[in-house]
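Predict the 3D structure for this chain.
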Amino acid sequence: MGVTLQTAMVLAAGLGTRMRPLSENVPKPLVPVAGKPLIDHVLDRLAAAGIRRAVVNVHHLADQLVAHLEARASPATTISDERDRLLDSGGGVLKALPLLGPGSFLIHNCDAIWTEGATSNLAKLAAAWDEDAMDCLMLLAPAETSLGYHGRGDFALDAAGRLRRPEPQERVPFVFAGVSVAHPRLFDGAPDGPFSLNRPWDGAIARGRAFGVVLEGRWMHVGDPAAVTAAEGWINSQHER
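Done. Predicted structure below.
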């Protein structure tokens, strides 16, 4: 059990509708939080975790994002171009599979950042990954302490760490933190065109092959301007300690 992950898929092609007006003239991944674009928060964390290569999909205001990525040295970035057709989260990963290679890889949203606890959360994911037993492994944050999240939660975990969805009207303790490990077989039988990652995840849950690891630290969902302000306040308060 455990794997050395070297490749990540960074989901950066969304329209950033909820981030307007901040995303009207720049793509959402370039919106700064605490002086650093969202995508640099992600890529810096990936580089620190030993990820050597990131495949980044682009669509909205793509030229700006491509130019920004060209100025980065680590991790090395490859563009998965969705300018002609936005493919949603699942379709974007499916399109990029030939660029990601045959092994397991990380999938990372651009609007998920966090403060670490005692252990690197990406290292926890890699250590917990069991390719024989799992098709996907999600990083989960406690819903009650997450910044910028207001909902009933996304998942519960059983004693073995397997995921389940909430029942109608049920409150569950964990929210998806925007990062997961996946094996390419997660996308076996996936349709062409746009589809959400929820589709292959639900298949893995039904097969008993979807698992979760709980994040240490505090997770921030930076999906709209108010969440940017809240995240900046939290990050700055930590630096002042």
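Residues 88 and 143 are 24 Å apart (CA to CA).
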